[in-house]
Amino acid sequence: MYQPRDQFQPDQKSGIELGGTTLSVDRVLDILRRQWPLITAILAGTLALVMIYLLAARPMYTANARILMDTRQTQVLDKDSGVNNALIDTGFVDSQVEILNSDDLILSIVRRLRLTEDPEFNGSDPGIIALILGKVISLFGSDGPPSKERIERGAVEALQKNLRVERVLTTYVLSLSFRSRNPDRAAQIANEISDAYIVGALEAKYQSTKRAGEWLQQRSAELREQATASDRAVQTFKAQNNIVGTSRGLMTEQQLSDVNTQLIQARAATAEAKARLDRIEAISDKDLAQPTVTDALNNTVITRLRAQYLDLAAQYADWSSRYGKTHQASVNLANRMEESRKAIADEVRRIADSYRSEYAIAKSRESSLEENMKALVAQAGSTGQAQVKLRDLESAADTYRNLYNNFLEKLQQATQNQSFPISEARIISTAVKPDKKSSPRTLLAIAGGLVGGLCLGFGAAFSRELLSDVLRSPSDVEGELGVKCLGVLPDIRPATAVAQKARALLPTDNSSAKQNGASLSHYVVDHPFSRFAETLRNIKLSIDVARLTRDVKVIGIVSSLPKEGKTTVAANFGHLTALTGHRTLLIDGDLHTRSLTRDLAPNAKTGLLEALKEPKSLGYHIQRSKETGLDLLPSFVASRMVNSADVMASKAMADLLHIVRENYEYIIIDLAPVMPVTDAKAIGHLVDAMIYVIEWGRTTRSALQESVSGSEVIQKKLLGAVLNRANPKMLKRIEAYKGSHYNSYYIEGA
Ligand SMILES: Nc1ncnc2c1ncn2[C@@H]1O[C@H](COP(=O)(O)OP(=O)(O)OP(=O)(O)O)[C@@H](O)[C@H]1O
Ligand SMILES: [Mg+2]
């Protein structure tokens, strides 16, 4: 038993669920097979646009200069700057990018290079696209010839558009690129901008140091005055309070300590003189000859006198013992001894006198010093108060002086910086004339066009497929209806359309033109080996298989909407079964359009309605095809009926069908579409099976759902569905996986 695999087995391959539809590899391939012309068209369109762009776009050249933000240079002068200052924060570098892009800087370049006279920047030579855009915009508002400012503004904007300044990764290097139609111009402008930036930076620095210098100068003058005034205040106060400063402190303090030292010395001297005097006064006459006393005096005169006395005393002792004390010599000696003693006593007295006067002097000196001391102490007490105030004044004066010195130093530095300004930035590579155009990049544009075109094409193809609500493959039908798709009927119009045209050229052959109008209902007869005929045979086979288990004789051909091909399918199916020798009756059950009757029996004056009234006269109303032996029960209605559904569901219809069941093997009823009228649903319980015709690529899923799920009887009787009017070219593409010889079994033109 021949049953094409693809038509009967639902697609159970796993896939990705996408918007309610499963996207499997097979489905993707299917979509690509169906939609490749669209993809190719979009790709070709994109590439054509790219080519137009490449031809129309003017070549542009980009020159690149690089600027380094270098802190070390500024540190040469800036002694105060710590280590942290060496690091420029990223915000600073980003600000420099903005400065390079700033209107003022660019405007200075525009003026210096007179770019308002350059057609590239003054807008007098725009590109093709800009020209068209400009024309369109000018339609909406004409505002006279542009002013000088506007031209300048335009030039600034044109420059800014072509200028790109960016930080190189995380370094302190700024890369400055400028694009122009002229390579020399590109390099020149890039260099001018970087130069202007450096000069601008120096100028800004100069201005700021100048301002700082001026301020410092003013402030230091004020400070100098303040310092001088406070110094003067200190001096005046000292004079007023009689405070004299020496290197070792104030005069009063100095004097006090000096007098104190002297007083101590004087007291010691007095005590020493007193001691000496006391000792000499303590010496009695008897003691004069005593060596201990005289030795203590340590006087040369006394020592000599004593030595003399001792000699006399020794001689006296000798002589008195030898000659007796009374001896004149001894008496003489005794007298001399007395004299000597007197001399010693005189001397001692004289020394005592000198000691006394020494003592008196020391005492008077001591008392004078004490007086002095007292006076000084009194004076010091009064200067103590003034001292506190003085210290205040002095510290104020010190502060002012220090501040002044500090400012003076800063001022010096500022003046230095001003005369030798250094900027943080320096150019590390100047722009050179580019030898290659930077845009348009032919290869890149083509590659981009290819990729973009493919993406667009695939996107369009997939969205067209996935968003479309129509059915195109047996699996679509099976998924939607849950019944077998019995086959895909190709569109048979094109082949005949050509023939029709050819025949129409023959003016006299009216009959052939007429015949052509009905030719589609005879298609299987004319093309028995076509795919169309083979698919109908497959439908017949499915019915025959169903007949093995139940009685399937009355078959309704139905569709959701009009013009899906019910009549064509019914007529051809009828011819096909009749040709195979089966007794077949074709009933025109569409009482609204009666297209089957108009097609196959245009002259019929009676038909179904008459037969319903009188079933026995059935044979009288039936017309037989000479060609195939197919019996046709046409319909004839004088005016359109309102109760056609009642007629369809009537007892008479049941009786009629009962009669024809006896005489025919296949009874095919061409029905009206389900959605607009209810006829098909009404006759549903009288038919054995229904075959649903779905127009390929036209009938929507929603229409199908609405018509089938809305009718239980149709669901119950549905034997299968058939896709009609499939585009043969598309069909070939879809079925390319079946191999190139798949269609060789069909003979379409036969
Ligand atoms: N497979 C096909 N290839 C080419 N043309 C077809 C095919 N099937 C139907 N047609 C054409 O489509 C038109 C509508 O077909 P047909 O009358 O069979 O549809 P219908 O569903 O019976 O319409 P209605 O609902 O009006 O009865 C006709 O002109 C017919 O020739
Ligand atoms: Mg019809």
Short structural description:
With 750 residues, the chain is of the alpha/beta class. The protein has 4 domains: 31-57 and 449-468, no CATH class; 61-138 and 146-206 and 421-429, Bacterial polysaccharide co-polymerase-like; 249-382, no CATH class; 474-745, Rossmann fold (3-Layer(aba) Sandwich), CATH 3.40.50.
Q: Can you describe this structure?
A:
The chain has 750 residues and is of the alpha/beta class. The chain has four domains: 47 residues, no CATH class; 148 residues, Bacterial polysaccharide co-polymerase-like (2-Layer Sandwich); 134 residues, no CATH class; 272 residues, P-loop containing nucleotide triphosphate hydrolases (Rossmann fold, 3-Layer(aba) Sandwich), CATH 3.40.50. Helix content is 61%, strand content 11%. The protein is built from 29 helices and 16 strands. The strands form four sheets. An eight-stranded mixed sheet has the order 9-16-15-10-14-11-13-12, with helices on both faces. Strands 4-5-3-8 form a four-stranded antiparallel sheet. It is rod-shaped. The site of adenosine-5'-triphosphate has 19 residues, from α20 and β16.
